[in-house]
Design goal:
heterodimer; A: 872 residues; alpha+beta; 6-stranded mixed beta barrel; 29 helices; 23 strands; 51% helix; B: 112 residues; Arc Repressor Mutant, subunit A; two-stranded antiparallel sheet; 5 helices; 2 strands; 56% helix; elongated
Chain lengths: 872, 112
Amino acid sequence: MSSPTPPKFILRFLKWFCKPEYHLDIEGDLLEFYERNVEELGRRKANLRLYKDVFLLFRPSMMRSISFGVPHLQLSLLANYFKVSWRSIMSQKQYSFFNVAGLVFGITCFILVSIFVSHERSFDRFYENVDNIYHVYEYEYAEEAYLGSEYYAVTPAQMASALMADYPEVEYATTLTEDYALLTHENRDPWYEKGLFTDSTFFKVFSHPKFNEGSAETAFLNLRSIILTQSLADKMFPSSGAMGQTLTYKDEPYLVTGVVMDPPLNSTFQFSFIANLQDDERYLSEFKKERWDGSNYYTFFSMNPSADPESLEQKLPEVIEKYWTTDGTFHFDYLIQPFAAHHFNSNTNNDLGKKGSMQQIILFLTVSILILILAGINYVNLSIARSMIRIREVGIRKSFGAGRRQLVFQFLLESELLAVMAFVVSLVIAKILLPYFGMSLDRELTFNLFNNFSLLLMLFGIILLLGLAAGIYPAWVISSASTTQIIKGRSQDNTQGKGTQQWLVIFQYSVSIAMVICTIIIYQQFQFISNKELGFEQDQILTLEVRDMDILRNYNTIKAELLANPDIIGVGTSQNLPHDVRSGTTVNDDEGGDPGDDLSIYRLRADHDFIDIYQLEVVAGRSLPEIPVKGKNLECLINESAAEALGFSPQEAIGQILTDDTPPSQYRTIIGVVKDFHQHGLHLEISPMLVEYRPFFEYISVKANSQDIPGLIEYMDKTIKKHSEYPVNFRFMDDRVNQLYAGEQKKASLFSGLSLLTIIIATLGLYGLAALNAHQKVKEIGIRKVLGASISSILIFTSGNFLKLIAGGFLISIPIAWYAMQQWLENYAYRIDINWLTFALVGLGAMLIALLTVGSQSIKAAIVNPVDCIRD
Amino acid sequence: MKQFQLGEFEEVVLLTVGILHGNAYGVTIRDEIETRLSRKVSVGALQTTLRRLEKKGFLESNHGDSSQSRGGRPKLFFTLTAEGKKALDYVKESRNQLWGALPEAIINLSFS
């Protein structure tokens, strides 16, 4: 029977205003009239009658009372919803476990990443005037960027006073630097601490650190004064207060004139004490120079809030002409950078503080949100699949008069309940994992429910949204089942839900397979790096960083004492270690030649023994002499790259003279050529380098040949301690080399953890789906078996579809992973090629895991005696 | 004395429900009144009155089965309660009483 359909809006209007308890039968009456009227009077008149009837029904006695939100939501009903939700969660423990476990993984990882991100974003934000603080840095045009960057964080010592004098928009400018120093008090062990060396203007530019004792105005009135942080003050002067005490620094008595708060963890400046830069000889000697000739100090300034930073930056190059020692050409500029952006600007040489990376933050946020989505997808998928089971409950609820809204509300409540449960569990887990998580990111992270209340609130909001997002679709699908269909016992063939389910599985697998592929490629790259020969010896070499002038003065004695031990084969000195050559200069092989021919070259300052210890191979000429030549004419070695850059073969290079173009000119005679080695790890390419002797050194390297390394280290410690108060810490050269990649390696292992998580979540989801699928098809399987199907054919029948989905996910993941890894590998000068075998293996592995997951469920269903399952 | 006062339309509706005996729901009641008394009845007026009578306890209602017609909406059948019957009796009795008291002259009066 084709019944005529009345205009929908008028019925909706009726539904809107009419008391719900009257609505249904009145609508029925109206429809009955309408049907009759259409037959007797035609559609147009029937419509008119209907409008008239409905408008005449629009009277107070028919109208519902005004209500907001969910209708009929009484407290008792709400309590009942909770009870039912809880029972439903508990009644299917396995299913709930998979759901909650997936959510817990996802939420935990999201909480951790959120804490990290909020920590990174809070960097240096605690200064009251942070938006007006700027850092002056230098941009140098060079053909070959020094250590991969053309930016330098340092300026001449006089920069701050020049800014104050010449630019009215600069309010205060301060100069600072960081260094370690030895502090002693009475006869106790010395404290080797990191200090901030600056002037009293620092406290005018920066509103932190706050003084616990003393004040910014009085602290540096006297040159011989020092400010301690609270924690160092407590360590050094545990019983008496630190204020007014005297300690020994640089062999002189210094008065503690202030105690400040410890710098917070999210501060660029990290220090244990603040010393007066005006008292520093090196600084004073530079500061006194009329013309600028070197950049060794950091300059920060606060600007008038009304001034325009860009116009100031444009005027800055004026100082170069005005103050710098001139040789006619300048190939650098001064730029300013807001201090608020300082933490994320990691592309500057010699910069202060721990650096963050926006890219990394975005990567981790993306990954954690993806994981959260994957976990949410599990929820959606399992709920839709389970709706086939819960459909009876829905039917009964509907026949008892439950409206769709009530059903949706109930299912939503259930998903919110699960999400909140998962959130609470995740908070606990996150709290436990936080220190380890922080360690792998080189951060000390803390999370306190009260300090991070806003973060917590935001997280909770996101979790509620997640619950809503994950619950709304299943709730909608389940509640839309038609009552009559359910009551008739026909299991609903929800093709729409199935389609969505399949896309979600494909999405999950494309994400997790892509992440696993990336992890493996990252692992391969690290494997490649750690196996690649850097070109110098690393085995059984112990290195000591030297900061004590006493060691330099007594070096010959120390060397002799060390060599007295038969286990020590060689002792050498250098300014840098061979894996991290930082010094550089510019040379020309033709004095007074065209400056365009100048060669930027790294400079390794080392002695004769150093060449032997690291087994640097001399391919032409001879090594550095044991007794260095003195005077203006130095002897040097160059590496093969330098010879090539100068246009010589190694043999031709011998005897050539290199001149330094900055006065005072130095002449270096090339006496030998060493084989190229990786002087900056594998991030940068091998560059031209010269090796020359310098009496000052910063590292002692010791080549050992010993079975008893701990004993040897003890011997060396004792030997050094005889000449120095400083802490002695010998470190293995191979450890130092590994340290080059340690940060990335930690991040990579974190990333692999995350990708493991995605595969677990995806597998959990698949397992749940497969279990439900097998459960639903148990009768079908039974019948197939009765009709003679073999177990293997049943396996194919149940697993085939899942495998197709995973294959789909795999196909999608290939280009994504390939592109991402190409980008990542760009960071390395020496890198692996992406191997297609990796993709194939991961794809195969994913199939295998899926097959096992689905198969275990299918087998369970397949081996059941068909009698048992068909009988029910 | 219990309150049995009924309005005119209430009385009509109550009587019609009685007449329809077991088959009284919105559509039939309206049809019955319209055909028997040839007056127009709006669904709004009818429904308001039905609900009011139900609230007064003169009518009871029960949902019938829903069918494919009427958009699957159930019919709401109304039946007279004992109170409703009493109310009708009371009305009829009081009218009869009044009729009985009417003088002969008036009864025979015709206005042509």
